[in-house]
């Protein structure tokens, strides 16, 4: 009985941590996209084409490729890719599944 209680607490702790980190990352991503004029998301790898002058536009979503969000922070001049959105979604899914399993076994 003590072993199952201990495992239940561990699963609950891990699911809570995953949900908290995933939710925080998702919130930070949304805030960056809404509040920043030219957001560069964390863990991004971007091109630098040496464009002179003001950027032609704002943030442009370009799609997903191999779990990397591809976007342009400055209207198509530079291209960026980041796995941060997939990491946030993965943490939310793992946390939710662990939380559901833990609740179902109680």
What is the strand and helix layout of this fold?
Layout: H1 2-35, E1 45-46, E2 60-65, E3 68-72, E4 80-82, H2 84-105
Antiparallel strand pairs: 1-4, 2-3, 3-4
Helix pairs in contact: 1-2
Give a description of the structure:
Strand 2 (60-65) and strand 3 form a beta hairpin. The protein is of the alpha+beta class and 106 residues long. It is elongated and about 65 Å long. It contains two helices and four strands, in the order H-E-E-E-E-H. It has a four-stranded antiparallel sheet with strand order 1-4-3-2. The protein has one domain (2-105). Helix content is 53%, strand content 15%. The protein has helices at 2-35, 84-105; strands at 45-46, 60-65, 68-72, 80-82. The chain crosses the membrane at residues 12-35, 81-101. Keywords: Membrane, Transmembrane, Transmembrane helix.
C-alpha Rg, in Å?
19 Å
Main sheet: which strands, in order across? 1-4-3-2
Distance between the termini: 12 Å
Structural class: alpha+beta
Number of strands: 4
Order of helices and strands: HEEEEH
Keywords: Membrane, Transmembrane, Transmembrane helix
Transmembrane segments: 12-35, 81-101
Give a short summary of the structure.
The protein is 53% helix and 15% strand. The protein is built from two helices and four strands.
Question: What characteristics describe this protein?
Answer:
alpha+beta; transmembrane helix; transmembrane; membrane; 106 residues
